[in-house]
Design a protein that fits this description.
The protein is mainly α and about 220 residues long. It is built from 13 helices and no strands. Helix 5 runs antiparallel to helix 6. The protein is elongated, with a radius of gyration of 20 Å. The protein starts with 6 loop residues before the first helix and ends with a helix. The N terminus is likely disordered.
Length: about 220
């Protein structure tokens, strides 16, 4: 099984809504309450952001776009609306629109890792490989201490079968976040593709020594034989 983290998985970082443990019914109830509040306070940006968040969690993409659009018509520099409208556009495969929103966001807040990762993800969806490479290189230069930055570039390199450079980037991600099992497994996967079984086994031994059960790693150990 290929355990390499795809660039699209990195972009789960963008879905901060997932931290909320509400059920769908609770989100629907929230929408009803917020709609009542908005009838009383139609220009309240905070209420509209909350309603858009509920719409996103209910996968009511059109309603979320409408809310973010209304906010941005009143304030085109609203960063929360730009960021999450880009996310919603991406979910609806409106890649050009998502890119435009990320570009607008980054023009205001250039040092925002998640927005840059989101832009790289959208560029990948658009098939703009050179632009993806340029953006990922830029991200690593801007955030040299970010494991996620190296992991994003490594995932793209792995997908492009650029295994030698991917090993380096997965290694940097592991160095910066040695407790992240997925990063180490992704490095192991690439090492095995390169036939470097001894190094792969050493990486697995490192995981095991830090508390990861060897039974969990059995599939990978078997591939190093």
């Amino acid at each position: 099984m290929n355990k390499t983290i795809c660039l699209c998985v990195v972009c789960v970082l963008l879905n901060i809504h997932a931290v909320h443990a509400q059920t769908r019914q609770q989100w629907r109830d929230s929408v009803e309450v917020l709609n009542r509040e908005l009838r009383q306070h139609p220009d309240d940006v905070h209420l509209r952001l909350l309603k858009a968040e509920a719409n996103v969690n209910l996968e009511e993409w059109d309603y979320a776009l409408a809310e973010y659009g209304r906010i941005l018509r009143a304030d085109e520099r609203n960063l929360a609306a730009l960021f999450f409208r880009a996310y919603v556009h991406e979910k609806q495969r409106h890649y050009a629109e998502a890119k435009a929103d990320y570009d607008a966001f980054l023009a205001i807040e250039p040092l925002h890792l998640e927005a840059r990762l989101g832009l790289a993800h959208v560029l990948q969806k658009m098939g703009k490989k050179k632009d993806v490479v340029d953006e990922l290189n830029h991200i690593v230069q801007m955030f040299p201490d970010s494991a996620d930055a190296y992991a994003a570039r490594a995932a793209f390199e792995t997908e492009q079968q650029q295994y030698e450079v991917a090993v380096y980037d997965w290694g940097e991600a592991v160095r910066l976040r040695p407790d992240n099992v997925d990063y180490t497994i992704s490095k192991v996967d690439v090492l095995l593709r390169l036939g470097r079984k001894r190094e792969a086994r050493e990486a697995l031994d490192s995981l095991a020594s830090k508390g990861t059960p060897r039974g969990v790693l059995k599939e990978w150990y078997d591939r190093t034989k």
